[in-house]
Amino acid sequence: MDLIEAKHKINTERHPWEYARFEVLKHFLKKEIIQHKNNPTIIDIGCGDSFVVESISKLYPQANLIAVDTAFTPEIIDHYKQKLHNKKISFYYNIDEVPTTVKADCILLMDVIEHIEKDIDFLKLVKEKPFTTNDTKWFITVPAYQSLFCMHDTFLGHFRRYDNEMLIEHTTKADLKTLKIGYFFFSLLLPRYLQVKKEKSQKHTDSTTGLVEWDAGSFKTNLIKTVLVIDFKITSFFQAIGIKLPGLSNYIICQKSA
User: Whole-model pTM?
Assistant: First the structure.
């Protein structure tokens, strides 16, 4: 969850989308990125409220995890250090603070670059940091389809939404080569389309608070999470046989060009 959302959140239940998106990440970590490494080094840039690194630490107890977010304050970092109490998780305000001795097996940019006006320049900047090697794999997720841009995007400070072509174009211009690309959460397309259509027809101007609006109980949360995970598995199956389904989110796995 973005820190802009976390500071408004008044309930403790996370949105099922967050849980389901982590299941997507977990799949790719095991199958495409980390595979059999027991102590990988993973840098989560734009980590938000640390949910992802906390979840990865449970999946890979020996992993060296680095959480970076420019919205961190000393108080926030102290809070997460006390909350997680895990010496293998380090927190930094920006990527320049990451020690030069660190060599990342994986860089995570999960729903981050849509917040950055000059996203290609930012990707180039990350690519040139000492922690990025030729073997480092990047996992990037972004919201999909500019036609679905709505008030939720405006609230979160998004500059754009992507598609496969744009994501490949922007990462290629940053001298990154594509290893795998696709969409996920096909079932969320229709609800978002209807939301956008309603906003346009009613010239809707009410504010939105994104994921913080979720206040359902654990049963409904787990049910929707399960549906979204099944959705991802179905999409992955079709992609494996050459049928590419669209989705509300876009992902790419890439690394430095040779």
Answer: 0.91
